[in-house]
Amino acid sequence: MGNIKVDHVELSEDKLLGGRVRFCQPASGYRVAIDPVLLASAVPAVSGSRVLDLGTGVGAAALCLAARVADCQIDAVELQPELADIAVGNVKRNSLNGRLSLHVCDVLSLPSAFSHSFDHVMANPPYLPASRAGPPSRHNLSKVEGSARLTDWVAAASDALRLKGSLTFIHRADRLDELLALVRDVAGEIVVAPLWSHPGKVARRVLVRARKGVSTPLRLVPGLTLYDTDGGYTAAAESILRTGAPFTFDPDCSHPDACGDSVEDGWTAS
After folding, report:
1. Fewer Cβ atoms within 10 Å of its own Cβ: the N or the C terminal residue of the chain?
2. How far apart are CA 260 and CA 221, in angstroms?
3. Residue 211 belongs to a domain with what CATH number?
4. Does some domain include residue 266?
């Protein structure tokens, strides 16, 4: 697919989920990788769920979730107006008007109407605190925290959730202890899934899911290995990234109640 120019910004036309999602993004600078796809796959939304996507960028995670879960309603917020404008175009490109709404705002100042309104919140926040970023990238808000720190992202997710709703984050593994400390203050039933690049390699990303108003022990599950020894996607990764399968936190559970995923406990939309 070729590049196009919109308002003097060169955009590339790309696709996700094996072509089910088509989107534009800036041709240079921060580029969508697999993280938002994995994030969207881990959200336990069902038809009728209301979902909030914090820091949507060009809308990749929201678009993937909308493609996977029919009739869920998604509100997506983005601080950078130029990215939000591209995301609006991507919503139209995928015929999701009416299901996916964009809002230009900071996680520090979400609309008051969002408070306690969502069944699920997902976030792919900037991975680096400003103190760990070099001068060239310090102002790249897609990669480096600005005025909103990780604690603010977790607080915003918690405030937006209804009781027993879920929050799902994807983040760097080396910030897992910080993320868990913050999540424990607002939610329980925490599940951590490492994302391994290759067999035997250190996990550099983690998926963390928790539920507001639920108190059960933390669980560490097997997670997902992305690439096999030949360099291609593993079968499990392929099913998520190409066909839109949901991420399975507990592949060996024979009964959902044994794994904390009880429908009675609130996985259906409120």
Report:
1. N
2. 12
3. 3.40.50.150
4. no
